[in-house]
Amino acid sequence: MSEMNRNGSTAQTTEESSSLFLITSDGRTLSLPIASPSPRDPLNWSLRCRFMIFFSLAVMGGICVTMLNAVPILRHAMGLEFGEERMKQFDAATALPDVMFGVGVITWAPLCVGLGRRPVLVSNACFLLLGLVLAWRATSVPMVMAGISLQGLAAGSIPTAGMIMAIDVTYIHQRPLSIALLWTVGRGTTFIILGAAPHVLDLERQWRAFYLIAMLCAVAALLLVYFWCPETYFLRPPVAFDGRILVQTGHERIKIYDEWSQVPGGGAHESRPLPPLPMPLQPLELPPLPLVEMSPARPGTAEDKPKNTAISMVQSYEPSLFSYPTISTSASSRRAEKFRGRFRRIPGLPSVKRAQRSSWRGAAAVPVQMVLCLVNPLVFWVIMHKTASFLGTIVIRQALPKVLHSPPYNMSPATAGYVDFAAALGCFVSMPLTYVTTNRMVHRLTWRNRGVRRAAYYLPGFVLPVTAGFLANLLFGLSAAPVGSPGYLGTLHHWTVVSTAWMLTQIAFTGESIVSTLWVTEAFPQWAAGALAAVSGLNFMFAVAVNTAIPKWLESQGQLKMNLEIAVAILVAGGMGIPFAFWGKGVQQYLPGRHGAFMTGALRPQ
C-alpha cells in the first residue's frame, strides 16, 4: 500500500511506491488490501480454495517448464527416427520454445485484463495438451516443431495469468512467499523429472513415450485448472473504516473520505447506505442461505414433515469455487431461477466465460504500457540483466549434453541425468536464499524508514542472482573447455564442477525471477500486467535474438571464452543497477500519455 491521501484529489502522484500498515482505532493491524464482503472477492476464500489454486498452477507450470527443457535430451532419439539431414532445420530453431514463451507472455498479459485470468489459463492448458499430442503423433520434423511451439506458447501463461491469479488471492504480506513458492516448486519438480526420466525410459529411442506420459500429465493439469481455478478478477469497492470511507486504488493506495458524498461518483447516490466495514472487523454477513438439515427429524414428531428443510442465517461464508449465487428473498424469483437453472448447464459443471467488468480498453492499453515501461531506467536495467542471465542459461543448457557425452566425461544419458538433480537442488535452495535474505533486508530497511516499505528495498535482492550467474558461467566455461585447448584445466574437469555450475545457474535464474517479480509488482502495482509482461517476456525475446548468433560465437571464441564473456556481461549488467536505482527513482511510477490512466491491469483492479 502507498501513503494515504486524506483529501479527495484524483490527481496522480509521482511519488515513489511504498507500503505501510493500516491500524484500527482499537490497535488492531489489518491485512491489506481490505477484503470486501462480496463472496466474489478472492481474499475471502478459504485456505483450502487457495491451496487448490496454487497446486493447480504448480502442476501446470511444472509440466510447461519440463517440456521447455526436455528438447535437448530428446534430440538424439528424434535424429535416429527422422534422420540427421532432416533435423538440421530443427537444430536451426533450437530456441523456438523460448521464442514462443516470450510471445505467450506478451500475448496473454493483455488478455488477462480483457478476458480474465480463468479463460486464459484454461485455454492455455488446452494449448499445452494440443502441443503434446502434435509432438507425440508427429510424422515429420515441422510437426514436432509446431507441437513444441504450442507448448512454449502455453508456458507463457504461467508468469502472467498464473502469477496474477496467485497475487489476487493473497494479501500483501503473503505475496513474497506465494511468488517464491510458485517459481520454486514448478522449476524444482521439472529437473527432478528430467533427472529421473533417463532411468525410467530409454530416451535414446523412446522419445514418443516421454511425450505420451507428458500428455497424460497435461490432461490432469487441464482438469485441475478447469475445476480448481475459479476467476479471481475482482474490482475492489469502497469500504467503511472507523467512521470514514476507504477507497483502494489501482496503485494499491488508500484514499480516506470523511463523507460518502465526497467519494467520486457517490454524490449522485447519497441515499445509498455507507459501505460495510472491512472483513477483519466484523463477521461476513450475507443474505440468508438455505441450509439443509442433514440429520433427519425423529419420526412421530411435529417436525416430521415431508420435503421440509431447516432455514438458518449464515454468519460466515466459505465461497464455492464456481457458483456465486445472488440470493433473492422473493419466492417467485427463486422459482424462476430454479427453472432457468435446469436448462442453463450441467449442474455443478464450472463455466469458462469472460470475467465480470473486465475491460477491452484496458487490455488495449497493456501493450502500450509495456513499451512505455522501457522508458523507466530500472525496468530497462532489470530486462537487460535478465537477458544476460537467461542467455547464460540457454548456452549452458544447450551445451550440457554435448559436454557430458564427450571426453573427458564420456557419460551415458542415464548418468548425465544426475546433473539435473543438482539443478533441482538449486531451484529449491534459491527459495530460502532469495526469499529469506530479501525479506529480512526489506524488513530491516522498512524499520529504519519508520515502517514505510519502498519498492527500492527489493533491489539488494539482485546481488545473489548476479553473483550466482557470474560463478555459474565461469565454472562451466572452465569445466567445458575441450581437452588440449588453451584453457583446459584438468583439475576442474570433473562432473561435480559441472553439477555445481548447473546448480548455480538455476539459483541465479530462479532467484532472478523471484526478486524481479517482487520488485515490479511493488514498484508498478497500477500497471502490473504490462510491467510483468515487459520484465518476463521481453528479456526472453532479447536473449533468443542474441542466441541466434551463438553458433558463430562459439566457433570463433570457443566454449571457455564465450562463457567468460557472458559472465562478465552478467556482472556488468548487475552493477549498472546501482546508478539506475537512483536515476529511475523520479519516474518509477510515471507513464506518459493517456494509456497510463487505465487501472484495469493493476494488482487490485478498480
TrEMBL record:
GO terms for molecular function: transmembrane transporter activity. Pfam families: MFS_1. InterPro entries: MFS, MFS_trans_sf. It is a multi-pass membrane protein. The keyword Membrane applies. The chain crosses the membrane at residues 51-74, 94-113, 120-138, 144-167, 179-197, 209-229, 363-383, 416-436, 457-481, 501-520, 527-546, 566-584. It comes from the Eukaryota. Keywords: Membrane, Transmembrane, Transmembrane helix. It is found in: Membrane. The keyword DNA damage does not apply. GO terms for cellular component: plasma membrane. This is Major facilitator superfamily (MFS) profile domain-containing protein. It comes from Pyricularia oryzae (Rice blast fungus). The lineage of its organism: Eukaryota, Fungi, Dikarya, Ascomycota, Pezizomycotina.
